[in-house]
Amino acid sequence: MTEIGASSGPRRLPLPSGNGAVVLSWGVATDIGHRRQVNEDSLLATPPIFAVADGMGGHAAGDLASHAVVTRLSGVSHDGFVTPAAIGLALAQASHDIGHLEGTSLTGAGTTVTGMALTVSGEDPYFAVFNVGDSRVYRWLEGEFEQVTVDHSVVQELVDAGAITKRQAETHPDSNVITRAIGFNEPPMPDYWMMPVEPGLRLLACSDGLCKELDEERIQSLVGAGSPADATAQALVHAALQAGGRDNVTVVVVDVIEVEQG
Amino acid sequence: MAGAFYSPDPVEAGADWRLLVTERFLGAFGPATSVSTMSTLWRIAADPALGLDALVGAVPTRGVAAVDSFAIAAPDRITTFVVRGTGCADVSVAGRARRIDARGNEPWYVAEMADVERFALGPLQRSPGDLRPARADLPLDGGVVFGPWLGWSADVTSGPRSAPTPVQAPPPLATLDPQDTNVLGDLGRRAASLRRHRGEPPATAPTPETAVAAAFRLGDRDPERVDAPVYVGRQPRSPRVTGPMLPRLVRVESPSREVSATHIELRPTDRGLVLTDLESTNGTVVRQPGSGVRRLDSGESLQVVPGTLIDIGDGNVIEILAFH
Prior knowledge:
The complex is a heterodimer. By secondary structure, chain A is an alpha+beta fold. Chain A has one domain: 4-Layer Sandwich (Phosphatase 2c, domain 1). Chain A contains 7 helices and 14 strands. In chain A, the strands form 2 sheets. In chain A, strands 1, 4, 5, 6, 7, 8, 11 and 12 form an 8-stranded mixed β-sheet that branches. In chain A, a hairpin with a 2-residue loop joins β9 and β10. By secondary structure, chain B is mostly beta strands. Chain B has 2 domains: 196 residues, no CATH class; 109 residues, Tumour Suppressor Smad4. Chain B contains 4 helices and 24 strands. In chain B, α1 runs antiparallel to α4. Chain B is elongated and about 65 Å long.
């Protein structure tokens, strides 16, 4: 478990142009769960990037892999925001780091990563949501809750192909087989989504230790309960542990408090 | 790329760097870089589906083909530099020069700088000078050549002199099968591209890169080149995009809310731009040169040519431009 950054109350982040700012607050929480020997998740919560990584690989290699990806992402900032090329480059660097981990050549090591980065398009602030693997980002705004990312997993491909329903996917035996990762000697292939930074927007990044224990309705009710980001993160992890806690569980909650127009 | 130049002066045998120039990237690779590595890197750099991360990730950093030193630049509003080993970039910003080097960072070091006026890529041993092109330097619009360093200047445009014949002629862009070309930015395309570039033997027939680039202009704003999918709307979001670049989002004013939150997409392809109405509420009106005015059906896509005008409502008109 590598934890870079910590929960924070409202923080004002000036836009690179000097005109305007966004005010964010955020909360983080993680737990090893009830069954695992090692917490192989890592998290990053330092503006402009918030991310969750779920490492895979024997002999704690997964821990090193998730460490590598949050460490590389933590170095990405230009005037407090990220540029279009920066996330891909940081993931490529992490992929290189993971390829050089000792003792992992036979089994391989890798990690998922998902999260959101503050970026600017024109003069306007946006979140760039990125994803590789089956960790997830959810979005909550004015009572509407949706999953932003699409899992890179075998069951998601089955859902996309119409072979099984979303609910069947939750209990499918292959639910832990992912189709993309950082590491395993494959070039990273992140998906991106861009969305405006709007007051009231809440984003949740989580490892599958959360969404395999709690169904979407339960996650939504906790995210929409009106608690601050920090308390919400704690409540989500607590609920996942109560529901079984079979895996490591890690969450990062980011709230947009205010957007000051330039 | 316009603005690139290099010195053809011979230096001692075996000490020349390999200099690569495409539409989007410039790179200088150490003397130990093999021809086959350069072929692979050329094809990746010239493929619009692949980005800086793919190019840098494709440089071998271990094994017999390891490239111990390089410097790569992606000029843009914010220019990204990636340097490794003894490769460095001397960069001029607001009249002041500074050097970017790796200082032992593995596998490489990344720096981003805004408002770059000039830069030179090459070995650390080189003295930066004033970074301006000298009289004897030659412009290089695209290709792979040998030379001691590679320069770029924002105020140099392609002169009447044609680029010299590259020492190593760039191989042709791999031909794409028809089903592939319309899914730019798609995972399958990108993965297939990477696999093809890594595995395919170098081709021999030299063909200069003639990628079609296009741009747009919204109202009286500055023209913008399209090198990533563009989403235009009142409060635009992007759908899932797998590709080299983050999507570009363009917010327009729409007091009467005629414009949908995310109204249209402009997507770059090998053959130009494809416009898609993203199931907008009030529709998209298009005037193509020579074919009159028509309204796109909700969700309809259309290949657009320079001179096309796109009206998305509330006086927001987008003009499609050729890129020069």
